[in-house]
Design goal:
With about 300 residues, the chain is an alpha/beta fold. Helices cover about 35% and strands about 25% of the residues. Helix 6 runs parallel beside helix 7. The protein is globular and about 65 Å long. The relative contact order is 0.13.
Length: about 300
Amino acid sequence: MADLLTIADLDVAYSGRPAVRGVSLTLRRGEILGLVGESGSGKTSLCSAITGVLPAGASVRAAGLRFDGRELTELSHEEMRRLRASRIGLVPQRPMTSLSPSSPVLRQLRWYHDGPDLADLLGQVGLRAVIDRPRDHPHRFSGGQLQRLLIVLAALARKPDLLIADEPTTTLDATVQAQVLRLLLDLRDRLGLAMLYVTHDLAVVAQICDRVGVMYAGRLVESGTVDQIFTAPRHPYTRALLAALPGRTEPGRRLGTIPGDARARSAGCAFAPRCPDAFARCGEEEPMPITIGADVVRCHRAEEDA
């Protein structure tokens, strides 16, 4: 399966403060890559660098940021705009704030897609009734309905090669979340698109992703297949995240937590101040990525094991 997206040693900084540091990953056609990590780990900044929508003052440096053979850092603003309008789709985190509150939903849909197949596209996500509600504004729809409307615009209407879903189910209840996840999987199967699924929910990753990347303090600290990450995680941060899953906790026992402050840093590994396995080298030397089977991990302990 060919690589669609290749990122090599990507850095993103805001006014000189790093948000993404040395991230390298690949995404193949038809593959779903889950990107997990707590708030502030750099997930959204990574997605913004891919789509070219970083705010003014942000800086991007990469050894390579290639989409289907094209180097994205060399494209003009207009070329990136055309790419986003056709081949890269984005499903944002909060659908209510992604639509204008002062215009009817149907009118907004037609701003972006006014083709004769709009009713059919809405029918594919169970929202054909929107056609019969031409004057209803966003507040008249549920969060799940609005999220499916955005999927219509981002995926069905455009049929992109890459879909970036930035925590698309965070604000939804469990039933609607399951509906949206089934819809995304169906789109992957029907359209053959690749998907970068950003989330903090490892349970969702286990349901829909093929591979997963774990981010901490701007670094990609571990990446591998879903099976490998969930059965034999090598980075202490990955193990701590998994230990906090309710399904992995015995009845009557407290959920696992990660002690310390995420803002704490050391001269070496960023996770060292919170890591139960840290030793002297961890606080002094930044671990380099090492490959162990299908896994890539940044950890001195993993290096010793390898």
